[in-house]
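INFO  loader      accepted 1 record
INFO  loader      residues=379
INFO  predictor   begin
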Amino acid sequence: MLASTRGSFKLSYYNEYKSYLRVIQMSFPTIKSTHSLVAKHVNKEKWDKLKNHKTKTSGFTLAKAIACAVEFDNQHCGIYAGDWDSYKDFADVFDPIIQEYHGIKADAKHTSDMDFSKISGNINPAAPVHSTRIRVGRSIDGFGLSPGITKEQRLGVEELMKKAFSKFENELAGEYYPLKGMDEAVRKQLVDDHFLFMSGDRNLQVAGMERDWPEGRGIFHNKEKTFLVWVNEEDQLRIISMQKGGDVLGVFKRLANGIKAVGTTVKKESGKDFILDEKYGYVHSCPTNLGTGMRASVHIDLPGWTAAGLDKLKARCEELALQPRGTRGESGGQTGHTYDISNKHRLGYSEVQLVQTMIDGVNKLYDEDLKLQEKHGLK
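INFO  predictor   done
INFO  writer      dumping C-alpha cells
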C-alpha cells in the first residue's frame, strides 16, 4: 500500500510539474530567486526570443532550464542544461551566467589534462588526513543530460555502461547494482558504505532529473570499494576514486585509469565520445561543473585553524584557491576540527593543475596549523 501511495504521489507530482512548465512557458515567469544569476541574465527580451525553442536532442526548453530559479527563492545559479544543445541554443542566457560564475572571458578556452605523471609530490604523510576523494562528471555525446534526457536515452546510457563495467580488469573490476529491483540486503550495504544516491531532492525533482525513477539508474563499485561510478544521477556519469589516508596521487591515478577505461569501451561499443567543448570543457547538466567537473578533496584535522576561527580558515583557503566545508557536505554544517578541503575552481584550469593546487594548499594549511596549535596552547 505504501509503495502504491508513493508511486501515485510521484505521478501526481510529475503531472503538476508538466502543467507548471506549460503555464510559465506562455509568459515571462516570476523568478523567485531574485538574487540568482538567472534573475540577472534572463530578461523579457531574451525570454520572448527563446521561449518557444526546443532543442534537437531532447526537446529541452528555456522554461525547463530555469525551473529551479522560478520555483525556489534560494538559488545562486538557478539553471540547468538538458543536453549539449542547450548551451548552444540558449547561449544568450548560458554564456553570461557561465562567464560570471567562473570568472572567465567570453573568448576563453578550456584545456583538459589527466596526465598523473605531471603531479609533483603528495600530501605530507604526517598530516592527519582521514581520507581522499576525487570525482568528475562525464556525459556521452548524442544523449540528453539528466534534466532533459529521454527514457530511451537514459536506458541507452545504462546499457553502454553495463558493457563498459563488464570489461573492467584488475583494480577496476567490480559489479554494477541497478536501482530498479535492488535487493534489500544490497541496498542496506550501499547505504552503510555511503555509496547510494536516492530520490527526494527537491532541486533535482523540479529540474526534471527524477523522471522515471529509478529506471536506468545504478551504482558500480570495484571490489576494494575505491572506485565508483554513479549512472544517471545529476550527470550521466559521476566517476569517483577514493581511499583512506592522504595518497592523492594514487587516487588521481586510479581515477584517470578508470575514466580512460570507460571512454575506450563506450567508443568501441557506440562510436561516441565524452562531450568535450573547446570553450567549456567537459559538459555537465549544471553550468557550475563545466570544465573539469572535478572536486578533489581530503578530510583533514585542523585543530589550530579551528582555534583561530572558521572565518580565518575560509579566508586562507580563498588565498590558496581552496574551499573548506564541514565533513557532512556543503550544507551539513561543521562539527569538531575535521574539515573537507577541496579545489575551488572547475573551469579554466586543467585537472592536473587543480589536483596540484589541492596538494600544495593542504600541505600549507597543515604546516600553518602546527604553528597555530602552538600559538593557542594546543601542543
